[in-house]
Design a protein that fits this description.
Strand content: 15-25%
CATH topology of the largest domain: Nucleotidyltransferase, domain 5
Strand order of the largest sheet: 3-2-1-4-5
Number of domains: 2
Structural class: alpha/beta
Distance between the termini: 25 Å
Radius of gyration: 20 Å
Number of strands: 10
Order of helices and strands: EEEHHEHEHHEEEHHHHEHEHH
Largest sheet: 5 strands, mixed
Shape: globular
CATH superfamily of the largest domain: ATPase, nucleotide binding domain
Helix content: 40-55%
Number of helices: 12
Bound molecules: 5'-O-[(R)-(carboxyoxy)(hydroxy)phosphoryl]adenosine, zinc ion
Length: about 350
C-alpha cells in the first residue's frame, strides 16, 4: 500500500510517501519538510496569513519532490492523506484542497487525517508496537496524555489547562531575548545554568488528575527576570535552567499520574510514547526515561525528524485508516479545532 501524506497545519510545508506492508510494518520512501521558521522569525512567532501564503507557494513543488524521491507516480497510490486539522485554518485548507484535487483527478481514495492522531500513530511506523500504549504529546500547540487503544480509539487522560509546554518554552525564550523558536534556545542556555538558583513553582504537583498548567510558572520566570534587569548572560542561563527543571519535575509528576490512570482503566500499556517538538529536548527525554522505568514500561521516542511535524506521519495515519477501509468524501471539512 503506497500513500502520499500532506502536512500544512502550522509552519511546516511537508509531503511524504510511505509504504505499508500487509503485516502492518511501514517504510518511508520520501519525506520532504520545508520549515518556514525564517519567514516567521522576525515576528517572534507563526503569523497565520504568512504561513497560509507560503503553503500555497510551496506545496505543489514539495508534493512533486516527494513523489519523485519515492519514484512513484500518482496512478500507483493506494490513497492520498492530508492533515484536515486541528491547526491554522488557512494552511489546513491549502493541504486538504490539494489532497482532494489529487484524489479526484487520479480517482484515488482520500483520507482526512487528524494531525493529533498522526502523532499518536507514528511510533508504529518505526517500531513494531501493539495497542494499547500511552502517548505524551508535547508540542507548541499541545500538551496531552492520551491512551491509544486502537486506530480511531483514543481516550484523553490529561491536558494543559492553559499554555502548551512548547508555547511556555517559546514565551520564556522571548522574555529573555532569545530568538524564535525558543525551545531549543532555552535548552541550550539551560545547559550552562544553575537549576537551583531560582525556586520556581512546580505546577500541579501531587494533584490526583493528570492535567498540566504552565502559565503560572511562566509568570514566575517573568517576575524574576524583571527583578534582575539588566540581565547578564549567566542570569539568562540560570533562569532557563531553573525554568526547565520546574517544567520537568511537573511533567514527570503529571505523567506518573497519567500512567497510573492508564493502568487502572486499560491495564498496563505496551509503552510510554513521547511525540511533538518538545520531545526532542534531551533533559525531557531523561525525565521520561525515569518515569517509564518507575512505571515498569518501555519509553519510545520516534527519531526527532518524526517527532516534529512532517508528511510521513500523515501518510502513515492515512495508511492505518485505509487498511481498515476508513476513507473520507470530498465533503471532508478543514477544521481549526478537532479533538482527538
Ligand atoms: O511539534 P512541533 O514541531 O510543532 C507544533 O507545535 O505542532 O513543536 C514545536 C515546539 C515549539 O514550541 C518549540 O519551541 C518546541 O517544540 N521545541 C522544544 C525543543 N525543540 C522544539 N522545546 C524544548 N526543548 C527543545 N529542545
Ligand atoms: Zn504537530
Amino acid at each position: 500500500m503506497l500513500v502520499l501524506g500532506i502536512e500544512t497545519t502550522c509552519d511546516e510545508t511537508a509531503a511524504a510517501v510511505i509504504e505499508r506492508q500487509p503485516d502492518g510494518s511501514g517504510k518511508i520512501l520520501s519525506n520532504i519538510v520545508h520549515s518556514q521558521i525564517s519567514d516567521h522569525a522576525p515576528y517572534g512567532g507563526v503569523v497565520p496569513e504568512i504561513a497560509a501564503r507560503a503553503h500555497i507557494d510551496l506545496l505543489d513543488g514539495i508534493v512533486g519532490r516527494a513523489m519523485k524521491d519515492a519514484d512513484v507516480n500518482f496512478a500507483q497510490l493506494s490513497g492520498v492523506a492530508a492533515a484536515a486539522g486541528p491547526g491554522l485554518i488557512g494552511g489546513v485548507i491549502v493541504g486538504l484542497t490539494t489532497a482532494k484535487a489529487i484524489a479526484m483527478v487520479h480517482d484515488t481514495p482520500l483520507v482526512a487525517v487528524n494531525h493529533l492522531e498522526a502523532h499518536a500513530l507514528t511510533p508504529r511506523l518505526t517500531t513494531a508496537l501493539a495497542f494499547p500504549y500511552c502517548l505524551f504529546l508535547v508540542s507548541g500547540g499541545h500538551t496531552q496524555i492520551v491512551a491509544v487503544l486502537g486506530v480511531g480509539h483514543y481516550v484523553r487522560l490529561g491536558t494543559t489547562v492553559d499554555d502548551a509546554m512548547g508555547e511556555a518554552f517559546d514565551k520564556v525564550a522571548k522574555m529573555l531575548g532569545l530568538p524564535y523558536p525558543g525551545g531549543p534556545q532555552v535548552e541550550r542556555a539551560a545547559s550552562g545554568g544553575d537549576p537551583k538558583r531560582f525556586a520556581f513553582p512546580r505546577p500541579m504537583l501531587g494533584r490526583p488528575d493528570a492535567n498540566f498548567s504552565l502559565s503560572g510558572l511562566k509568570t514566575a520566570v517573568r517576575n524574576e527576570a524583571s527583578r534582575l534587569i539588566p540581565l547578564e548572560e549567566q542570569d539568562i542561563a540560570d533562569l532557563c535552567a531553573s525554568f526547565q527543571a520546574a517544567a520537568l519535575e511537573s511533567t514527570a509528576d503529571r505523567l506518573s499520574v497519567g500512567l497510573r490512570l492508564f493502568e487502572e482503566q486499560f491495564g498496563p500499556p505496551h509503552a510510554l510514547v513521547a511525540a511533538g517538538g518538545v520531545a526532542s529536548n534531551q533533559a525531557i527525554r531523561g525525565a521520561l526515561q525515569a518515569v517509564a522505568a518507575k512505571a515498569q514500561t518501555t519509553l519510545i521516542i520516534p527519531p526527532p525528524a518524526l517527532c516534529t511535524d512532517n508528511g510521513a506521519m500523515i501518510a502513515w495515519a492515512g495508511a492505518e485508516r485505509l487498511a481498515l477501509g476508513l476513507t473520507d468524501t470530498m465533503e471532508a471539512p478543514p477544521r481549526a479545532r478537532w479533538l482527538l
